[in-house]
Specification:
Number of strands: 11
Shape: globular
Strand content: 15-25%
Number of domains: 2
CATH class of the largest domain: Alpha Beta
Strand order of the largest sheet: 4-7-10-3-11
Number of helices: 13
Distance between the termini: 46 Å
CATH superfamily of the largest domain: P-loop containing nucleotide triphosphate hydrolases
Structural class: alpha/beta
Length: 324
């Protein structure tokens, strides 16, 4: 990766102006953007509490872990805060195949002046801690326990990174920041939705300064996001169609909480549904292909009932809400 152009923030951002949150808070920011700064999504909706938690992470170097169900926008939330601060941001997905060598680095053989030479190549952690970068550890609860201990000391207030192979201890850059996202709160997969997640070591979990919880957006805000993402459908049918789709999603979440459904619709699924309406020309077909077919067969009659309740239409009947 290329070196960053600015080594420290050179300006500030007023939280009230940048995020629409009525609070007196000024956050350091970078004046210029570089290749590591995420693009600004003007349609993104910020959760007040989570945004303030993340801003505390950026401004006061607090380690922030954001927990929430799939599709709530956990990783995107960090990126969109970083985007408005022009803060370089790098995401690392902690799947079960990430190893210590990938995090810390390894010896590599290169050819110099016609001779093979062994050089140490930094992993993502040494690269990040030397720079003013917001490192986001995605799927934090899916990382292998033996690998997770690599970052243990780095989570401490004055934490440093030890490279035992190099007999070196790295002091993080003053504007290095660390965030993480997780579907669970460290207790493992309690409802069968997140196969592959691990129980988190509570000694490490305790090192996160702030744990924020991000839920699904209120119905009106979610509908606004779907309309912004798929304006073709929203413009052709008006807000009523999008409102009904979001209402179906809300009913699936209620049914999931009640134990009647084993899966639910995330905002990401609703957006896919709206996009598929544009592709297939009718709401029912798009719904079946976007969500129903991933449900257990025994639960599909209930899903069809939820659809009928919001659209006044049998799921397998003629589609009166065609947008073709």
């Amino acid at each position: 990766m290329d070196d960053l152009t600015e080594s420290e923030p050179t300006t500030t951002v007023d939280v009230r102006d940048a995020f629409g949150i009525d609070v007196d808070m000024i956050v350091p920011a970078f004046r210029d953007r570089d290749a590591h700064v995420p693009e600004i999504d003007p349609a993104y909706r910020f959760n007040r509490d989570v945004t303030l938690a993340l801003l505390a992470g950026f401004s006061r170097n607090r380690r922030v872990l954001t927990q929430g169900m799939h599709g709530t926008g956990k990783s995107t939330h960090v990126e969109q805060v970083a985007a408005r601060l022009n803060w370089p941001c790098v995401r690392l997905n902690l799947d079960g195949h990430i190893s210590r060598l990938e995090l810390l680095g390894r010896d590599t053989i290169t050819v110099e002046d016609g001779m093979q030479v062994t050089r140490f190549q930094d992993g993502i952690l040494p690269w990040a801690v030397r720079r003013p970068v917001a490192l986001v550890l995605d799927e934090y609860d899916a990382g292998r326990p033996d690998v997770m201990f690599v970052i243990q000391r780095l989570l401490e207030r004055a934490g440093k990174l030890t490279l035992s192979d190099q007999s070196a201890v790295l002091t993080p850059h003053p504007y290095f920041r660390m965030f993480a996202t997780a579907n669970t709160v460290g207790l493992g997969d309690l409802n069968g939705m997140y196969y592959g997640v691990q129980r988190l070591n509570h000694a490490q979990l305790d090192r996160w300064d702030i744990v924020a919880s991000l839920g699904y957006l209120p119905r009106r805000e979610e509908a606004a996001i779907v309309a912004a993402r798929v304006p073709e459908v929203a413009d052709r049918r008006g807000p009523e169609l999008i409102d009904a789709m979001v209402a179906v999603a809300g009913l699936t979440r209620d049914s999931f909480r009640a134990g009647d459904l084993s899966t639910l619709m995330s905002p990401r699924t609703v957006i896919s549904w709206a996009e598929n309406v544009e592709v297939f020309g009718d709401v029912a077909t798009a719904f079946r292909l976007s969500f129903v077919n991933r449900c257990d067969e025994s639960e599909r009659p209930l899903v069809a009932e939820l659809f009928q309740r919001c659209f006044d239409l049998e799921l397998n009947g003629a589609d009166k809400t065609s947008v073709a």
